[in-house]
Specification:
The complex is a heterotrimer.
Chain A: H1 16-38, H2 44-68, E1 71-77, E2 80-86, H3 88-114, H4 124-140, H5 144-163, H6 168-199, H7 204-210, H8 215-232, H9 241-247, H10 250-275, H11 281-303, H12 307-324, H13 326-329, H14 336-371, H15 382-385, H16 387-401, H17 407-421, H18 425-450, H19 466-479, H20 484-493
Antiparallel strand pairs in A: 1-2
Helix pairs in contact in A: 1-2, 1-4, 2-3, 3-4, 3-10, 3-14, 3-19, 3-20, 4-5, 4-10, 5-6, 5-10, 6-8, 6-9, 8-10, 9-12, 10-14, 11-12, 11-18, 12-14, 12-18, 14-16, 14-17, 14-19, 16-18, 16-19, 17-18
Chain B: H1 2-25, H2 29-49, H3 53-75, H4 95-119, H5 121-125, H6 131-149, H7 153-175, H8 179-210
Chain C: H1 5-23, H2 29-55, E1 61-67, E2 70-75, H3 78-101, H4 108-127, H5 131-149, H6 155-186, H7 205-222, H8 231-234, H9 240-267, H10 269-275, H11 277-298, H12 302-322, H13 326-357, H14 368-371, H15 373-387, H16 393-407, H17 411-437, H18 461-479, H19 487-499
Antiparallel strand pairs in C: 1-2
Classes of the chains: A mainly alpha, B mainly alpha, C mainly alpha.
Pfam families (chain C): Proton_antipo_M (PF00361)
Main location (chain C): membrane
Membrane topology (chain C): Multi-pass membrane protein
Chain lengths: 496, 226, 501
Amino acid sequence: MIWRFGLFESTFAPLVSTHWALCIALGFPFLMGLLAALFPPKRMWPVALACLPVLASGWVLLSAYDQAGLLRWQWDVAGVSLSLRLNGLSVLLLLTTQWIGVAAALYTPGSLRLSEPQPLSRWLWPLMGVLLSALSLIWLASDLLTLYVALELMGLSAVGMLLLSGKVAALLAGMRYLLLALVGSLAYLLGVALILGHWGRLDLQGLAAVVEPGPVAWIAAALIGAGLALKAALFPMHGWLSPVHGNAWTPVSALHAALVIKASLFMLLQLWSILLPDTFYAPRVIALLGMLAIVWGGLLAWRTDSLKTLVASSTVAQLGYLMVVFPLLLGPDIAPLPRALAWEGFWLQLIGHAFAKAAMFMAAGNLILATGESTLKGLAGTSRRLPLSLLIFGVASVTLMGLPPSSGFTAKWLLLEAMLISQQWWAVAALLTGTLLTAAYVFRMFRYSFDDSAPRHHYQPLAPGMDLIALSLALTAFGLGLLAHFTLALMRGGGV
Amino acid sequence: MIASFDALEILLALGLTVTALACLFDRHLVRACCFFVAFALAMTLAWWQLGAPWLAAVELLLGAVLTGLCFFYALGRFFPGVSSSLERDSFNEPWSRSFARLLLALAWFVMVGAAIRYVITDMVYSPDEQPLLLAGVMITASALGAFALHRHLLRRLLAFNILGSGVFMLLAGVAGTSASAQALITVGLCIAWLGSMLGALLIRQLLHLEGVDALGRDGNPKENAT
Amino acid sequence: MNAAWLPVTTLITSLLVVVIIFSLPEEARRLRTTVNLLAAVIKIILVMLMVGRVSAGREDIFSFQVVGGVDFVLRADALGVMFAGLSSLLWLCTTIYAIGYLEGSANRKRFFGFFSLCVTSTIGIALADNLFTFLIFYEMLTLSTYPLVVHSGTQKALDAGRVYLRYTLSAGVVLLLGAVLLHYLTGDQSFSSEEGLSDYLNDHRGLLTLIFALLVGGLAVKAAMVPLHGWLPRAMVAPAPVSALLHAVAVVKAGAFGILRVVYDLFGLQLSIELGVISVLAVAASITIIYGSLRALAQEELKPRLAFSTVSQVSYIILGIGLFGPFGTIGALAHLLHQGLMKVTLFFCAGNYAEELGIHRIDEMDGAGKRMPLTSIAFTVGALGMIGLPPVAGFITKWYLGIGAIRAEMYWVVVVLIASSTLNAMYFLPIVHRLWFRLGPAHGQGQWPKEQRLGRLETHGWLLWPMVFTALASLGAGLLAGMPFSPLDWATRVATGEYLP
């Protein structure tokens, strides 16, 4: 498992151009955010211009990884060593972050212009910049201190963004999220303290070599796991998710659902595979919770009347799919084949869900913005008037349902095969039930939208490009299904 | 010399515990905030005592001054005219729920204690040689209990801050004051301050929009809270 | 020489239409019609090219890797090309018909977009060469049919859509499980592999039976086999072209075609017989045939009667598989084409009666032969074919099935065939009698429910000519069955390929 996260020595030192690309990837979003706070962009093109260097840096890092394999950076600052590493998985997640982040940033000007003017809206930009920088740092960091810094920056900027809409419900939900996130990070810190006290080091690569199973590792893993599960909204700690997503601005909930909770999950898996490489029970507990999450999240989404709650509850269920895979990734006696299949399926599902969920939030936001209604019943007749937004919602939900040819389907195929090989029938049942539940709540929404008998409302026209951005995200999630080979080959390249 | 050194440490530990408990369980909010400042000052001394002057300086600036200011801002002491200032926490919980939450906190306490016991084998033989560490465990446990118990947002924020300090104390006790540990604690202090600031702004905004009742609702919409 | 572009282009042609239609505005009626018809014609030409290449013994393969061990493969083989030909021919007819049928109604962009997507999926199903690819298009078909079923947006349509999804998505999950189990057991199994799965028989008999049950069970829902047929009659609320498409080509045939693929190309006939699953299939098909006919007899409206008739008729294909002999296979394959032609004719007629005269119930049809002679002649041809009377195509099928049953010494099947034909006659002949021999509004007695004069002829030309064409085709398929490239000839070619590799 360790080598899959790229925790080994690199063959080549990074080139100068790669250094620059790294600096841009990590720092540029933040700088541009500050700039945008001073001069809030009103149109899409300045944002696009600012995003170009970031995308270019992602591309440079990708080609650097392609040529040189794993890359490492290390600095010593005042006796503390900080280290970064770039392996296939990091590149993949970094690119995902950049593309979704750019899409959300491009979506923002139109969305802000059409909703009622807000005094705090200019502060969205620096917070979004910090969030993207912190996320990029999380994928790259390979010591516990850097991870902690990035996690906290991400958490605080996420809270800040959620609060900006200024509605009372958002404030209450945000306060709750803030307190939980802070306590979660203290739990994480305590776990790190135990590790530091017992083994005396913080770099993941060194830790992977010295950690041996024992009570300290277990307790540290439990503390870190509890803290990160709280932040990742893993069942049963998902309570804060729906109100937070339901009340935030659309690009904010898109970013949050697509990336922020995934970052905590990524850290959880990475740290557990160092601390608990061979435990039997912990991943099974997670898997059990995952099954419950699939069912419970699906039921929540099925019963709700609000569109945004539907989308948010579906996140709970979709995280369940990822949790169910844990016993195939961590634990003793897993054959190499199912582990490899599960590994690829896990990340494909995660990335596909990130794109699809971002697209879905944007489509839902467009529908709500255009109709002025946030309930499912308010959608009646939209299939005639807003076919494109609805189509985007549909394409994104195909990925969530895991129907072909989306990435959700390919991921599900891989996961199912891994589960069948290792004879985990419960997980198979959970996955298939999840498909049906997802279909149930998605088509419940479509049922309302196809209803033609409703009276016609006045629909607010959307800004140009708002639908196109969401569409491109949805199509990416869709296309990753058939083109999964290229994506997954990138991840495999670092290991062999 | 060693005996006096120990006595000072024990005194500090006692002071920390008492101020923390007073801050956590005093329903009078202004007094609780004053106790928090006192607690932060004691923490500063403790860092100094542990041989980490850098941390002491950071704690003094961030913990005592800036976080303290945040709390008094949240209380409405700076701009009293704008909206009502906070005096007392008057929210009550059904005690079955409090009991469940206390149980959770107790479980946490046991787990942390066990972890510490495994990491520092010396402590098993002579627990009184590490009074600050003991204080850290006490503070962490009671702060977590308070965090679980309270509904008033300001008190939860206070509990979080105390919990943070307790965790830092544990960290220092477990891992010593190496450069890495100091860096972790510094980051933690900054985060705690930023979090408190955000929280204080939020509390003010909520008070402004909804009045005092909003602070006890724990994220539930108005209809559900009775 | 491998012309990989041929299957891909065929697929992409129809996919491109979907994209174009969705990006055109709702008002661009003329452009949309042009694109639609042009693509349909191009696709027929491409399929004809494939037919030519297959008959010359070449099979074009297109493939790329999706993930390790799973490929996306399209292959133009005889069976696939047969289904592709049927769907592209009937697509052209149905598109023309739909343009006339939906004249002036709302949401046409959505309708034609998903209609084309539906046909794309059908082509994909026809050309898929492994279970993974098949599944992709099979599920795409499910999704793209939903907006067509609920097209009218009424409460009844929405309820029907919900029932439809319940059946088909559950079936999709079952099918997915079967497909992954098979992949886990054997790796990527191509439909064209010669070996079949007989190597696994000794060690994995139970698992193979389970996989067969899962696969065929999942497919049987779309093939509307009893007791999994519940969605089909309810889906009748859709507009007539959709019903025609659902019943004649796309959905039910996709299910039947899938079962053909599983039995002949995946498991191999030999293995299926050894597993003992074929006889079960034959019995299930017989039950469906009789049950469907009985239910059809009880219907008072035209479209539901046709729907139950479909339930019964599609199972002839399954029955043909169950006769394990070349004649049964030829009968099954030929019926895939014949039933498509005849059923689409009948639905076109039903749509015409409803549009022109407002007729929905059977007892309103008295004397309609005088008012709409061409439509009624077409209906009569279709009905006679369904009963199995010469010289219409349906006769050929029943003849081959009968011979197959006698050769296989399964005399109870002959009884089923006779019983079913009798029942078919009982529910179709009264309609034909009403059309021609009862006096009705055309003779000055009473009134049509809702008469419209849609065209110079008995109805709108867009509605009339596709129907005339399919009626002639079903007549021709029966009369000219001996000619090369007739459905029977092609079915014989496929069956020979199966039995004499």
